[in-house]
Amino acid sequence: MYLSPRLYHRFVRPQWSTQKYIHDHIRSMVSLKSRNVLDFGCGTGANCSICDAGYYYGVDPDAQRIEFAKELHPDYDFMVFDEKRIPLADQAIDLILIIAVLHHIPDEQITTYLHEFRRVLKPDGQMMIIEPYLCPQRKLGNWFMQKYDDGEHIRSEDGYLQLFDHGEYKYEVIKRFRKFFFYNELVFTATPTAFPKHDRQASSSLPHLKASVKI
């Protein structure tokens, strides 16, 4: 069921649960200070608050949610994603956040997006992914997620990791945790094993981001 941006922000991304189940995990694993961050599938922009204004870029195919995010967070940059090309220059991003997005996307589309992630990441950039996953030891949770979650592509741990492996990414599982008792959550990082040649002509008309300072 589609929720309006306001209802989505209130019920799917309330501040307390976003802080506990997303932001606290991200902050414990990576520094965001002065790093160019792409929030892929940003929704209404709930994750921008942990990033520096001017270094955060949220993209989402839902134009209504993007407009709502701009109203809520006028100091941050949000862009509509055409589901083909991420509207950023090559090698511009230090960190890509993908939070509860991939379980809404079929395998073949993720394979296409992996090429775009590789294009916009800096050579030393990385991705951090948090997704619900099917766990053989937690059948009740699996049943609950498959019945009530809007995502039609909740995968096993191996299902997610194999997509990145086939896309020529290195990955590392960081942690697994429970959310709301029924949800099994997987946290992993991914980095490309090879980068494409820089496409200067294609990049010239796209936003160039601030230099990153890693801390």
TrEMBL record:
Q: Does the keyword Methyltransferase apply?
A: yes
Which GO terms of the molecular function aspect are on file?
Answer: methyltransferase activity
Its GO biological process annotations read: methylation
- Does the record bear Transferase in its keywords? yes
Key words, A-Z: Methyltransferase, Transferase
- Annotated Methyltransferase type domain residues: 38-129
Q: Which organism is it from?
A: Paenibacillus puldeungensis
State what protein this is by name: Methyltransferase domain-containing protein
**CDD domains, per database record:** AdoMet_MTases (cd02440)
Q: Which Pfam families does the record cross-reference, listed alphabetically?
A: Methyltransf_11
Matching InterPro entries: Methyltransf_11, SAM-dependent_MTases_sf
Q: SUPFAM superfamilies of this UniProt entry?
A: S-adenosyl-L-methionine-dependent methyltransferases
